[in-house]
Design a protein that fits this description.
heterodimer; A: mainly alpha; Non-ribosomal Peptide Synthetase Peptidyl Carrier Protein, Chain A; 47% helix; disordered N terminus; B: alpha/beta; Rossmann fold; GMP Synthetase, Chain A, domain 3; 6-stranded mixed beta sheet; 11 helices; 27 strands; 29% helix; globular
Chain lengths: 94, 443
């Protein structure tokens, strides 16, 4: 597990991490998600495309943000918890 | 020798596809196919990774004109692509995005917009020509090829279009949420347009909002070709969709509850399709009203030594079904779960045997097994794995698996155990694994 404690999560990142963990049924605590580590791929959470769909549902339900795959920033949005959190905070409607 | 036209019903001026909000005529499609065929390298096998469904079909058709065979492997992990490159020496890749596939020569899908419309006669392809090799995951890590002739593919999707009541419905556009690189999407979103006389939508929407936007960018009647995963996402997200005429669902069992919700919400009938890689699509049912599957016209079933076989229609030699089947007649049946070890998640298929092979050949893994828990209502079932590997942590095991296995099949979670509950013959009965899973969950 990732034990990087150099970078602290913001309050909102913690809240989002908790939503992701319960949506994906992950066996970790929010604090274990490094906010700047990649969500996709070999490192970090290592989520896949079905997970991304699950995360998108949570994000829509909780914050009213509809994710779109032709959003040119998608790779960036899912690059890390921090980027996803920033994207949501800029676009949230609730 | 019998031959079949590339497009069976379309007239030159009729709409063949929608791409980014614009229509593409059958004549333009034909022009693009011929122009691309002239540009393809002189090779025998092509791995067509075009994301855009229209370009994928232009690539597939151009390859057929050049007698090249399209390979449809179960995934595109670098390990698998390398294995294919070794098995099919002059394999190349056709791609419309930046793909890096190491040793494989890649041709970028060219810009054909300057090519003047051709008034060429409709190409005819020999029915016996092998158009595609579709792969199942072999138990040793090497995928098993299954030949698909142009004639069999054509016959199968015509039977499917007839069953769905959409044959030669030149005004109906089919939007697929599944890629054309796997059998379901290949047949039910792409080939069905070419041979069933309906309109292909080039997009491959992913998020619920994408599906809505893709449906809204076209005019005329619409059908949605999708999976239980995407249907559930659409229903959960409360996305507004324009009116649908038909919903088609396949890849994993759809619950009646979800089917009913979809029908009520989108106001369209829902047909569920049953098929498997070796045979293609073979049957359908109206999930909301009946559990009973009905084979496509021309196909029939029989049982021999406890195994159910399908034959007739596009199927040359009888093929065994990988599921526990209860025959009601020779054309109607019930499914009672998977017999064998076939795993299908989000339209991607593999087998437990193949996954177990990959797991147990990792350095440091002494023993290991994948396990598919029973479907949980409302959730996409995920694989679990039990691993005996005293020197490795779960993260290292996952990292090694990631190189060999498509991400949707990665186990969640990995349970590290001291031993596996093998019985006296070395087998791992499902009930024992179920018990082990409960123990691990309780910690």
């Amino acid at each position: 597990m990732n034990t990087n404690t150099d970078i602290d999560q913001s309050g909102f990142e913690q809240e989002l991490a908790q939503h992701i963990i319960s949506a994906l049924n992950l066996d970790i605590s929010p604090a274990e998600i490094d906010p700047v580590a990649p969500l996709y791929g070999d490192e970090g959470l290592g989520i896949d495309s079905i997970d991304v769909l699950e995360i998108s549902l949570v994000v829509t339900k909780q914050y009213g943000v509809q994710l779109r795959s032709d959003d040119g920033n998608n790779a960036k949005i899912f690059a890390s918890l921090r980027n996803l959190a920033n994207h949501i905070q800029q676009n949230r409607t609730k | 020798m019998q031959s079949i036209p590339l497009l069976k019903f379309h007239q030159p001026e009729s709409v063949f596809a929608w791409q980014r909000g614009k229509t593409i005529s059958a004549q333009r499609f034909l022009t693009d196919v011929i122009a691309l065929a002239e540009r393809l390298p002189a090779r025998s096998y092509v791995l067509n990774l075009c994301n855009d469904r229209y370009r994928f079909m232009v690539g597939f058709s151009a390859a057929m004109l050049r007698s090249q065979i399209s390979l449809l492997p179960p995934s595109h992990t670098s390990d698998l692509v390398n294995r294919l490159a070794q098995q099919y020496a002059d394999l190349y890749c056709l791609s419309d995005a930046a793909h890096d596939h190491g040793s494989l020569q890649t041709m970028s899908y060219p810009d054909l917009s300057d090519v003047n419309l051709l008034h060429a006669p409709m190409p005819e392809i020999p029915a016996a020509q092998v158009a595609a090799l579709v792969f199942t995951s072999g138990s040793t890590g090497n995928p098993m090829p299954h030949e698909k002739t142009w004639g069999a593919l054509s016959q199968d999707v015509i039977a499917e279009a007839s069953r769905l009541g959409i044959l030669n419905r030149g005004d109906l556009t089919l939007l697929g949420t599944v890629p054309p690189q796997h059998m379901y999407g290949f047949e039910s979103t792409a080939l069905i347009a070419m041979q069933g006389g309906v309109i292909l939508h080039a997009a491959k929407p992913f998020f619920p909002a994408d599906i809505g936007a893709s449906l809204n960018e076209i005019r005329g009647p619409r059908a949605l070709i999708t999976t239980p995963v995407h249907l559930r996402a659409l229903l959960t997200s409360n996305t507004d969709l324009p009116a649908l005429e038909l919903i088609v669902c396949a890849t994993a069992p759809l619950s009646r509850e979800l089917a009913l919700q979809a029908i009520v919400r989108f106001g369209a009938p829902l047909q569920e399709i049953y098929g498997f890689t070796e045979a293609g699509q073979i049957a359908s049912r109206e999930t909301a009203v009946s559990d009973e599957w009905r084979t496509f016209d021309g196909l029939s079933l029989h049982q021999k030594d406890g195994t159910t076989y399908v034959s007739g229609g596009h199927i040359v030699d009888e093929l065994p079904l990988g599921d526990i089947t209860e025959l009601l007649s020779d054309t109607t049946f019930l499914l009672h779960g998977r017999t064998a070890d076939l795993i299908n998640i989000a339209g991607k298929r593999t087998s437990l045997a193949s996954l177990n092979h990959h797991l147990t050949t990792i350095d440091g893994v002494h023993d290991g097994v994948f396990f598919m828990p029973d479907e949980q209502q409302g959730n996409t079932a995920r694989l679990a794995a039990f691993v005996v590997a005293p020197e490795l942590d779960a993260r290292e095991i996952l990292k090694a698996l990631r190189l060999r296995v498509d991400p949707v099949f990665l186990p969640r979670p990995i349970h590290k155990v001291a031993t596996l509950p093998r019985n006296s013959t070395g087998k791992l009965p499902r009930t024992s694994l179920d018990k082990l899973l409960q123990q691990c969950k309780r910690g």
